[in-house]
Structure formats: structure tokens, C-alpha cells
């Protein structure tokens, strides 16, 4: 009862959450942009049907990132906190988490959500441990405020889980939720600077190597040409890049774990249970057998094409279209034909 009165008397400057509310950990990428997965996370957050605050961490340009988020007022965003400090370079979880913990202590969110990206997957389990609650990972559906769906056994079974924790700390599978669309709502979300003086003597940002490419990131690509062990070498992966480059800005290259482990390509191209989860319009699996751990990462693709010399390869059971034959014959031919189009 006393808590209720306290809440009523307090002005909106400090907003203790007498009511359930959600915090979305928004991700800043490429010097100020909002990460696409944050937009999917906003959709998941809106399904909880309660007020939403967002928080953005960054070494610079958090104002710009906040301005982008303000365009999504349909999603009931009340406040956007920005925490800017040179110490957030590289967005290390050791630097970010203590500030997030303070924010939680002040505002008592009932739900804290982030996208299932390397960023949130590093931070939110750490936060959950500090709050002494379980970390709920990679949800694909919000049933209600306490219940969610997530995939287990490499996507072969769906788990319905119920959490009784007071605070639910959740990562959201981006491909399972529509991206939020910009629009209206009832007034712009307020932007508030957090006094961010992070202390982090546990880790240090050294450097980040970014491969400059015209090709989209895997989760954002509309078309993916994925290669497997059958490609046999790093040089042969060029066959896939040649194909992808026929669809500038739309297509990119992915790989099976066998191809990554063999060193044919960088490991951030890996698709599957222990790699990226993708759902492009078109997925072309080339010399990939179709192990369940691979399927787990691409089965929601809209159209799946398989090229494999073994007509009994399991990938054909998944595929909408199949080409049985030697990829080293088929790919150059396909590239030539597409060039003529
Ligand atoms: P293979 O299974 O060796 O298949 C190669 C295919 O190429 C075969 O079907 C063959 O018929 C075909 N082929 C050969 N030559 C040609 C040719 N000239 N032309 C056309 N076709 C040809 N795997 C992932 O991909 N992603 C993951 O995230 C992942 N996570 C895993 C997690 C765990 C815990 C475990 C145990 C495994 C995981 N794996 C993962 C590995 C997975 O089980 C498979 O080993 C792997 O996906 C196989 O890769 P592949 O299809 O490229 O190779």
C-alpha cells in the first residue's frame, strides 16, 4: 500500500515503475545507426502491451541513434536513455552491464529485452546473473507477459516456457518478429542522458576488423548463396561471390560449419545452430548435405534451392527446388546464364 502512495506522489522526473514496463536494449551499429535486430525487438516488446523505455550505449553519436528510434512512436516508447562514453567503444559487456544494472535498480522494469545478436547475447546473460534471475534466450514468440516460445534441439522442438522471475531478461530472435515500422504514436519519446561513468578494469577494447563489402550482412540479405564442404577450397568460394555480386546490395555468401572449420571462409559466415539464423527470400545451399544443425539456421527461408551431387542428400527434403549435379559444372553455367539476364 505504501508503495502505491509513493508512486502517486512522485513526479514524472523520476519514474518509479508502479506499472509493469519494458526496457529495450537498443544496439548502435556503423557509427550511429540503429541495428535492424533492434526493430524486431521493438515488435516483440510491443506484444507485452506495456510502456517501453529504450537505452542506447555508444562511444559517439548516441543522439543520432536516439533520433532514429524516436520515429517508432507507435511502439509506445516513453523514454530513450543514452549513455555515451569513450569507454563504450566496442560495446564491451563488462562496461555496459553495470550501467544497465543501475538503470534497472532505478526503474524496476519487469522485462528487459535485446535482440539475439553478439551485442545483447554478451550483455543480457551477465545482467540476468547480477539480478539473480534466469536468462531467457532467443524467444520466437511472446504468449503473454510470463510465457514465451523458443526452439530447442536445433529447432526440432518448440519449448513453451513460463518464468516466475520478477524481472524477465530476454533475447529475441530477430527473424521471428516483423521489423517495427516508423510511425506516429502519441508524441515523441523523451531523450534522457544517463550519467555514464563506466568502470571496467576487466576487459579492454583493442581493435575491430571490419571487412568492407558492398554485400549486405547475412541476416539482412534477401538472397544467400551458401557453400559447404564440397567447395573444397577458399579459392573456390569465389564461385559463390561471383554469383552474389550479380545481385548488388541484395545477395551475400554464407557457409556450413564444415566449410568454416576447413578454413574456406571467415567464421562469421557460418549459418546454423552455432552460427547465424537467417530467413532470406531465397536460400541456395550449394554442396551442403543438410545436417540438422545447419537446417536450424536457415529453415525459415522463403524459397530454398539445393545443389548437390547426391540425390539422396537430406537437404533435398527441405528444398523447394533441387538440382542434382556437380556444383563445379552447375555454378559457372548458372553465373553465365544470370549474367545474360
Ligand atoms: P557435408 O555434410 O560433408 O556435406 C557435403 C555435401 O556436398 C554432401 O551432401 C555431398 O553430396 C555434396 N557434394 C560433394 N561434392 C559435391 C559436388 N562436387 N557438387 C555438389 N555437391 C557435392 N553445421 C552447420 O552448418 N552450422 C552449424 O551452426 C553447426 N553447428 C553444429 C553444432 C554442433 C553441436 C554439432 C555437433 C555440429 C554442428 N554443425 C553445424 C555441423 C553439422 O553437423 C555438419 O557436420 C555440417 O553442417 C556439414 O557441413 P556440409 O554440409 O558442408 O558438409
Automatic annotation (TrEMBL):
Molecular function in Gene Ontology: electron transfer activity; flavin adenine dinucleotide binding
All copies of domain Electron transfer flavoprotein alpha/beta-subunit N-terminal, residue ranges: 22-209
Alphabetic keyword roster: Electron transport, FAD, Flavoprotein, Mitochondrion, Transport
SUPFAM superfamilies per the UniProt record, alphabetical: Adenine nucleotide alpha hydrolases-like, DHS-like NAD/FAD-binding domain
Gene3D superfamilies: HUPs, TPP-binding domain
InterPro entries (UniProt xref): DHS-like_NAD/FAD-binding_dom, ETF_a/b_N, ETF_a/FixB, ETF_alpha_N, ETF_asu_C, ETF_asu_C_CS, Rossmann-like_a/b/a_fold
GO terms of biological process kind: fatty acid beta-oxidation using acyl-CoA dehydrogenase
Localization annotation: Mitochondrion matrix
Cofactor binding: number and manner: Binds 1 FAD per dimer.
Cofactors, names only: FAD
Superkingdom, taxonomy of origin: Eukaryota
UniProt cross-references to PROSITE patterns, sorted A to Z: ETF_ALPHA
GO CC annotation terms, alphabetical: electron transfer flavoprotein complex; mitochondrial matrix
SMART domains noted in UniProt: ETF
CDD domains xref list: ETF_alpha (cd01715)
List of residues binding FAD: 229, 256-257, 270-274, 287-294, 308
Function: The electron transfer flavoprotein serves as a specific electron acceptor for several dehydrogenases, including five acyl-CoA dehydrogenases, glutaryl-CoA and sarcosine dehydrogenase. It transfers the electrons to the main mitochondrial respiratory chain via ETF-ubiquinone oxidoreductase (ETF dehydrogenase).
Subunit and partners: Heterodimer of an alpha and a beta subunit.
Record family assignment: Belongs to the ETF alpha-subunit/FixB family.
Name assigned to this protein: Electron transfer flavoprotein subunit alpha
UniProt organism field: Adineta ricciae
Taxonomic lineage of the native organism: Eukaryota, Metazoa, Spiralia, Gnathifera, Rotifera
Amino acid at each position: 500500500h505504501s508503495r502505491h502512495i509513493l508512486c502517486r506522489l512522485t513526479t514524472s522526473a523520476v519514474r518509479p515503475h508502479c506499472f509493469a514496463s519494458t526496457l529495450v536494449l537498443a544496439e548502435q551499429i556503423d557509427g550511429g545507426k540503429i541495428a535492424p535486430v533492434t526493430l524486431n525487438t521493438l515488435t516483440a516488446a510491443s506484444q507485452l502491451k506495456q510502456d517501453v523505455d529504450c537505452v542506447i550505449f555508444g562511444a559517439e553519436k548516441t543522439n543520432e541513434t536516439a533520433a532514429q528510434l524516436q520515429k517508432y512512436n507507435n511502439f509506445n516508447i516513453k523514454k530513450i536513455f543514452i549513455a555515451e562514453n569513450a569507454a563504450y567503444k566496442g560495446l564491451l559487456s563488462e562496461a555496459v552491464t553495470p550501467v544497465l544494472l543501475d538503470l534497472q535498480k532505478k526503474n524496476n522494469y519487469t522485462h528487459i529485452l535485446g535482440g539475439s545478436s553478439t551485442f545483447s547475447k554478451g550483455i543480457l546473460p551477465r545482467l540476468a546473473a547480477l539480478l539473480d534471475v534466469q536468462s531467457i534466450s532467443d524467444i520466437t514468440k511472446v504468449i503473454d507477459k510470463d510465457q514465451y516460445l523458443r526452439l530447442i534441439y536445433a529447432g526440432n522442438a518448440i519449448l513453451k516456457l513460463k518464468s516466475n522471475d520478477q524481472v524477465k531478461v530476454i533475447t529475441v530472435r530477430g527473424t521471428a518478429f516483423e521489423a517495427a515500422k516508423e510511425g506516429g504514436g502519441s508524441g515523441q519519446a523523451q531523450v534522457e542522458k544517463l550519467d555514464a561513468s563506466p568502470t571496467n578494469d576487466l576487459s579492454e577494447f583493442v581493435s575491430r576488423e571490419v571487412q568492407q563489402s558492398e554485400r549486405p550482412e547475412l541476416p539482412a540479405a534477401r538472397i544467400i548463396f551458401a557453400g559447404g564442404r564440397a567447395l573444397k577450397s577458399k579459392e573456390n568460394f569465389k564461385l559463390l561471390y561471383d554469383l552474389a555480386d550479380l545481385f548488388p546490395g541484395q545477395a551475400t555468401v554464407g557457409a556450413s560449419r564444415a566449410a568454416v572449420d576447413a578454413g574456406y571462409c571467415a567464421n562469421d559466415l557460418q549459418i546454423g545452430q552455432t552460427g547465424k539464423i537467417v530467413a532470406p527470400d531465397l536460400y541456395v545451399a550449394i554442396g551442403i548435405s543438410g545436417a540438422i544443425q545447419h537446417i536450424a539456421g536457415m529453415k525459415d527461408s522463403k524459397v530454398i534451392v539445393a545443389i548437390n551431387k547426391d540425390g539422396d542428400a537430406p537437404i533435398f527434403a527441405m528444398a523447394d527446388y533441387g538440382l542434382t549435379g556437380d556444383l563445379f559444372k552447375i555454378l559457372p553455367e548458372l553465373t553465365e546464364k544470370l549474367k545474360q539476364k
